[in-house]
Design a protein that fits this description.
Blueprint: H1 2-17, H2 25-41, E1 50-51, E2 61-66, E3 74-78, E4 82-86, E5 94-95, E6 105-111, E7 116-121, E8 136-139, E9 147-148, E10 157-163, E11 166-174, E12 186-190, E13 198-201, E14 207-215, E15 218-228, E16 230-231, E17 236-237, E18 244-248, E19 256-257, E20 271-278, E21 284-293, H3 308-311, H4 316-320, H5 324-333, H6 342-351, H7 357-362, H8 368-372, E22 375-383, E23 391-392, E24 411-415, E25 418-425, E26 429-432, E27 440-441, E28 451-456, E29 464-468, E30 471-475, E31 483-484, E32 497-498, E33 505-510, E34 514-519, H9 527-531, E35 537-540, E36 547-549, E37 556-561, E38 565-570, E39 575-578, E40 598-600, E41 608-611, E42 615-618, E43 626-627, E44 646-651, E45 659-663, E46 668-671, E47 679-680, E48 690-696, E49 704-709, E50 719-723, E51 731-732, E52 742-747, E53 755-759, E54 762-766, E55 774-775, E56 785-791, E57 796-801, E58 806-810, E59 826-827, E60 854-860, E61 864-872, E62 877-885, E63 888-894, E64 897-898, H10 900-908, E65 921-922, E66 926-934, E67 937-945
Amino acid sequence: MKHSLLLLFSFLFISAFSQQPATSKAELEKALQQKEQLSKNSLVKNLPFKNIGPTVMSGRIVDFAVNPNNPIEFYAGYASGGVWYTNNNGISFTPVIDNTVTQNVGSLAVDWKTGTIWVGTGEVNASRSSYAGIGLLKSTDKGKTWQNMGLKDSHHISKILINPANSDEVVVSAVGHLYSTNEERGVYKTVDGGKTWNKTLFVNDESGIIEMDRDPNNFDLIYASSWEKDRKAWNFTGSGEGSAIYKSTDGGDSWKKVSVSGSGFPTGEGAGRIGLAVVDENIVYAVIDNQDHREKKKMETNSDALTKGVFKEMSASEFLALDNDKLKKFLRANGFQEKYKAENVKNMVRSGSVKPADLAKYLEDANTQLFDTPVIGAEVYKSTNGGKSWKKTHEGYINDLYYSYGYYFGKIHVDPSNSDKIYIYGVPILKSADGGKTFESISAENVHADHHALWINPKKSGHLIDGNDGGVNISYDDGKTWIKNNAPAVGQFYTVNVDNEEPYNVYGGLQDNGVWVGPHNAKIDYGWQQSGQNPYESIMGGDGMHVQIDNRNSNIVYTGFQFGNYFRLNRETEEQTYIQPKHELGESPYRFNWQTPILLSPHNQDILYLGGNKLMRSMNQGDDWEAISGDLTKSGKPGNVAYGTLTSISESPFTFGLLYAGSDDGMLHISKNAGGNWMDVSKSFPKDLWVSRVIASKHKKERVYATLNGYRWDDFKTYAYVSENYGQTWKDISSNLPASPVNVIKEDPENENVLYIGTDNGAYVSFNQGESWEAFSEGLPSVAVHDLVIQEREKDLILGTHGRSFYLADVTLLQQMNAEKMSDLILAEIEPIRASRRWGSKYGEWYDVIEPSVNLHFYSPSKGKGVITIETEEGKQLQNLNIDVVKGINVVEYDASVSEKGRKTLEKNDVELNKADNDTYYLPKGMYNVIITKNAAKSSQKLEVK
């Protein structure tokens, strides 16, 4: 009996406290093969996606590979936007890994003698959206084809060093998993071009190698830095005993730890991320994110300013003796609600309803520990004896560089022509001309903050290529002035939404680049540099988050930045009103997710919902709030990251107050009475996963969809569910989806059988409510799709990708499909075109011929030969096109031309056609029949030429 009870207790303990297992290497390989096969056989593989920008704000750069003999030629690696090539100094770029199964990049290296490219996949900056990679990629034909060279379970690869004397000798450093422990991390070496690898340095299963650098004149001399970190959804420890510097004198075959106790370099629990820059056999620089706490400053006894810390130990009598003006200044300066005036708060303390410590508690949330902790931060050290001893180069602290998140940065560089000239960066970019004794900023108004990569021309001092959260900048005067080189569409969008204007606008919130809006049909080219007017407009700073647009007046927009900081914007009057809900004095602070969800009620556009750890509702556009739930999470966990927060909310379009709310710790609740009471409907789900989306159906009141995301456990399985009874029971609809965390699910607004899903590795559609899925691929790389929306009037699907900006596809044909029609030939409705006298002509000698284009989308259940016929309304044939048909979606571009036979037919009916300059006849204004024929099957639609 005791044995049975012990087993039961052990099972319950493990069930309660064990985390989701990380996806294995074998599972990852299977998923990649499945995605490749699914894309190849997909019924929608030919449905074209068009990138609609924007490009102006760019995305996070992580590495460069620059041709030292021709520095206008280089490769740029974007964290989740792929690798891009330029040979014109960044005026234009071409993507080179779009034909692979990832866009997630950690490091680059190029053997410029042979043109061989190495890509270490998986970003290493340990941010909230640092996606895992698939190992090492290698191309010997400048990116036309790629081969995976292994290390697939390393997830994040930080550096690749190629021996200039032997291209087959390569040393690679791997950080390892971000959210879990694993063995495939450390330093690896190959001497056969990547066919086989030997692990030469391993610290432990929590410490990977974050940086390597070598002596420019001696490949045998390499330094590597390890980094111990433990990231969880609720806490990030970015330092530990495993962080250290190692040295190799035999080209990475063996290593010796040089940052030992007594060496002068920081060690121990506070040792964080370390960057390295090697000058020669003696001199090496290192920058460390020192997480040890700073010495506490003595409080100035004569200071007039109150700080929150003084209230923590203050007695009620001491509080009541405070000067009212001094208390008033503190309350206003710290954003207390207007009702909390000095005398009102004193009365609350006097009555015992609150304590003085509650004033400090009011200002503290789950992020306080992260942002308020006074750590030492960035420090620069130098060794002049090959790493035997180290000395800090500067006095005091380097303030306002790393702040409290040095894990996101951690690089140092030395000018190859001047060993005293070094560069470090975090939020700003700094340089020193005296070996790190003093620094100056070389940031500029056209250079984005948060820097991650720098290349220094070894043959021209002062020529810099900088990579930051806003893309690429180039300087030729050592940072006095900069060129901005944002040509690629590599925006990292968290969200996307649309309005109903004509043309309609697309809105989205980006990682560290605010919120932008622009017309969906904007021309993405260089024309705006001539006009000075980019088609996309910035409407909010910070890390842009969700956007809701009032459907009565699209000038009223609700949006904001991270951790629930939301505003109501009036774009017409340029008014901006801060609307974040505030808790009451004496209550525990609300917890807000990084991507706090908001929702305008479909029943009344004055009603706004916002999710903290409770669901908030405003009846007056965010001016006033009430909590309509208790805590709908598992109450959070101790840590320095907001956790136990709502991540997705939905209201049924059938009934006001039929609400769903999902959380980051795996909870999903329903209320059928506008928040009067709530019921947990997530008990059958896998535990502790992020509820990435909950969607109340537009087609059936009882139906609801939910997706879960295991990214923060390194669990890459697909979790997608539907319930037909308000969440009482759930059906798994992940079906044949390849393993990849799911970010969003949406149902088609017209066809209840059609569903769309966005994952960390692409987007899919189902024609049978999730029984099976088809992969989108034409024009769409394998990029993280964070959000998607359907513009109902125009029947457009817009994807918000986290790495490649927005993509748009016409889903008119998809809306006509379901399981019963999969054996039919189906031609989609055809958009009218406007006739022009300029068809077939040019504006001038040096211009292209103006030609109309009608995209005909049709579905065929089988491949073979087909015929497209254009007829008059009376059935007279005007054009006949023979085509090759594939199984699934087909797209044929028809140029509105009329055959010679068709011209004669029209002239017989007194319709005279003029031959255009390009010797082509075009359809005149009128209505026409377009008919697709394949074997005995036919499908037709009307075409109007206005």
